[in-house]
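queue> pop job 88
queue> type: inverse folding (structure -> sequence)
queue> payload:
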């Protein structure tokens, strides 16, 4: 199985661990470039950088003509540092959110960053700060979809988007405020099935009809899945593209002029490129269960604990070999939390996984960790952020150094009255 090999872009994971220590994320540049090539049939691909926001990854995306989405002031700043400009058609950076904070508004006004508004209140705030920037409206169509309840971004219990019944009111408010509202955005959750996607496309056509001739751009959002399980099939990108192209043509017939179509993948572009490598520090028996405890926890990769997400796991000896014998094992991390388990299902149900028989000192690799791994990591339990490596043609580059304890504590202060 390609993604269970013990190498990244021709470099032994054991050699990487020896040189850089564990845990670390390693990204195979060629895999990212292949996923970019997969989407070449779409006119505009806008990377949802929240999936993997390292500036080296953003610079790689930019070098291949991929534009970027930002959901915070920090992500705008990252995009600028990676060489993006909000200018152009399509704009290099778009800010998408349900609220503004002061930092985001300041950067939007300073750099002229287009805004995708997810709440009606944002219109007045934008008009006060930067009335000249282009605006799109993110619509909540009244229904949602996703691989987890936590990734469903549509429907009456979702905080995301402008409720579909308020579209005309927002268009009128925007006109009165002098805003240039020229686009619609419709993303309702991760994971895609085509019956559901057809409903989404039909909804976009209906909203476009209501918006009329001022419409210039439609965004399908993201949510393109990847095969986390070995038995999963790949998404049919041609079928996906044709559904949206059909909606695009229908909209153009209605409003009488061309409209641009954007897609906004995050996970699809980066997930399969990445592994999280950790060192097994304990192998122990608890009643009838075998536990592998490693030096990375949910502070490093939170998806299994937060969503019950599945990741393939493999074990590699320090000499690069893979143990032949297999056992049923639970994989856990070092955190002082019962939920710090990588082999769990949604709802926190701990399960075993059939894995190679391991011993202390072996490497444990968690695959398809390039999306929502490093970008969602934290310093919980005062644990340093893992290193990140970009690997290509047998060469590894450090794109984020491993944090030190001094890095973690550098902005904390003890008041004089409490100092010893």
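queue> result:
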């Amino acid at each position: 199985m390609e993604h269970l090999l013990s190498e990244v872009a021709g470099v032994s994971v054991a050699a990487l661990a020896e040189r850089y220590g564990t845990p670390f994320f390693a990204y195979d540049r060629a895999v990212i470039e292949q996923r970019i090539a997969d989407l070449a049939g779409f006119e505009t691909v806008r990377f949802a950088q929240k999936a993997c926001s390292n500036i080296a990854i953003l610079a790689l995306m930019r070098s291949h003509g991929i534009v970027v989405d930002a959901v915070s002031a920090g992500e705008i700043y990252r995009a600028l540092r990676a060489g993006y400009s909000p200018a152009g058609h399509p704009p290099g950076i778009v800010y998408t959110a349900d609220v503004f904070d002061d930092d985001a508004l300041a950067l939007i006004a300073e750099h002229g960053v287009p805004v995708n508004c997810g709440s009606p209140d944002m219109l007045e705030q934008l008009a006060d700060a930067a009335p000249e920037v282009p605006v799109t409206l993110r619509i909540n169509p009244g229904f949602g979809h996703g691989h987890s309840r936590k990734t469903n971004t549509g429907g009456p219990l979702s905080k995301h988007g402008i409720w579909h019944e308020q579209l005309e009111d927002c268009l009128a408010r925007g006109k009165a405020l002098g805003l240039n509202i020229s686009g619609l955005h419709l993303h309702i959750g991760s994971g895609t099935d085509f019956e559901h996607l057809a409903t989404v496309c039909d909804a976009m056509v209906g909203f476009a009809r209501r918006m009329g001739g001022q419409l210039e751009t439609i965004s399908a959002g993201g949510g393109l899945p990847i095969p986390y399980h070995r038995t999963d099939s790949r998404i049919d990108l041609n079928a996906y593209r044709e559904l949206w192209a059909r909606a695009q043509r229908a909209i153009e017939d209605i409003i009488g002029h061309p409209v641009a179509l954007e897609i906004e993948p995050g996970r699809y572009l980066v997930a399969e490129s990445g592994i999280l490598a950790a060192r097994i520090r304990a192998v122990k028996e608890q009643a009838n269960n075998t536990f592998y405890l490693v030096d990375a926890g949910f502070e490093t990769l939170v998806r299994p604990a937060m969503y019950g997400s599945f990741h393939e796991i493999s074990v590699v000896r320090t000499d690069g070999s893979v143990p032949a014998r297999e056992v049923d094992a639970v994989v856990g991390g070092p955190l002082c939390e019962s939920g710090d388990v990588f082999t769990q299902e949604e709802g926190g149900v701990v399960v075993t996984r059939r894995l190679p028989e391991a011993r202390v000192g072996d490497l444990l690799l968690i695959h398809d960790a390039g999306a929502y791994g490093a970008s969602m990591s934290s310093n919980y339990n005062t644990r340093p952020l893992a290193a990140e490596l970009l690997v290509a043609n047998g060469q590894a580059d450090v794109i984020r150094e491993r944090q030190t304890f001094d890095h973690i504590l550098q902005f904390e202060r003890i008041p004089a009255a409490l100092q010893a």
